[in-house]
Amino acid sequence: MKIDGKPFRSVWLDADGYSIRIFDQTKLPWAVEELVLSDEEQVAHAIRSMQVRGAPLIGAVGAYGLAMALRRDPSIENLERMAAMLNETRPTAVNLKWALDRICAAVRNHPPERRADAAYAEAAAICDDDVETNRRIGQHGLELLQEIAARKPAGEPVRVLTHCNAGWIATVDFGTALSPIYQAHDLGLDVHVWVDETRPRNQGAALTAWELGAHGVPHTLVADNAGGHLMQRGLVDIVLVGTDRVTRQGDVANKIGTYLKALAARDNNVPFWVALPHSTLDMKVRDGLSEIPIEERSGTEVTDATGRLPDGSVVTVRVAAEGTPAANPAFDVTPARLVTGLITERGRCEASEAGLAGLYPEKA
User: Fold this and answer.
1) Domains of the chain by range and CATH?
2) Is this structure's pTM higher than 0.85?
3) Is there a catalytic annotation at residue 244?
């Protein structure tokens, strides 16, 4: 995608040939700052602190982190130890483990002196795969938006509600749930996006709104609790979200609050679609509610908020009474029964074991 007309990916190799550059997402939308990561500890910190976030992008960055670790110590013992360390940084999104496992498999049969190079090559392949995967997700999701547009009166936009950020900044490029929107907009389809603020970290306000604005896509920021109201008033044609893990029966783990959107969509007969790359599919897990680990983050993300003052300075302030305890589950699970369908790089399917097996027979 582009920033000020210049094309970017969300992660790229630095000029030194071994470090990577990312955008520091904790600085967005107030500043676009590049961050250089040169070793596995810096990578782990960037993932844990959400300087880099989004399930597909975490996987790609984690893959490079493991390659960096092998530059220092190419032993199999270090490979396994560092893979475990990086995997623990964000336990809910399966893409990270998928990418780390892919690096491990790619280097095991190489002699020690070739393992780092093999790991870097595999990390680059993971990035290229993510770009093409998300482009194809966009094509299959675009068809849904075109079908809605064909049924609407002339001059009325297709109105999409999304939650959290599933755009290009959360992937290597294109995005998952936002990829169909970008492709529709670029083809001249009239699309308007309702952007959930996505408390407590405000990824919708800080990232999705920033992305859409930079690309010229019409959008409106709304409070998280406004989605049901908009659906009741007939102002939402489709809910389109990403995901951090999908089970083999079609349960969907995504940013906290997604489940409530699915309930509201079902009550108002609004289609609820989930976009995912193959790396987000976890066929080893069946029941999302009982088997997917839910990351519990610091309560300060709930009691505090960060924003920009009129003088341009960015500050964090407390919004809750002193001494107030806060719980902060980062994700929830939407049962497959509430999901209209899944959008993948191989096409669309129902959220079920049979539907996923039809698209991914080798995983089934």
Assistant:
1) 2-129 (1.20.120.420), 136-359 (3.40.50.10470)
2) yes
3) yes
Query: CA distances (Å), 274 to each of 44, 108, 118, 160, 340, in order?
Result: 28, 35, 34, 12, 8
254 is in an annotated binding site: yes
**Looking at the DSSP assignment, which residues form a beta bridge with residue 140?**
none
What are residue 194's DSSP bridge partners?
161, 220
Residues 38 and 41: their CA atoms lie apart, in Å, by: 9
**Mean pLDDT over all residues of the chain?**
96
Q: Buried b / exposed e across 104-125, counting CB within 10 Å, b at 16+?
A: bebbeeeeeeebbebbbebbbe
- Residue 203 in marked binding region: yes
Q: Which among 130, 196, 224, 244 is annotated as catalytic? A: 244
Quick: pLDDT tens for 162-191. 999 999 999 999 999 999 999 999 999 999
165 carries a ligand binding annotation: no
Return the SS3 of 350. coil
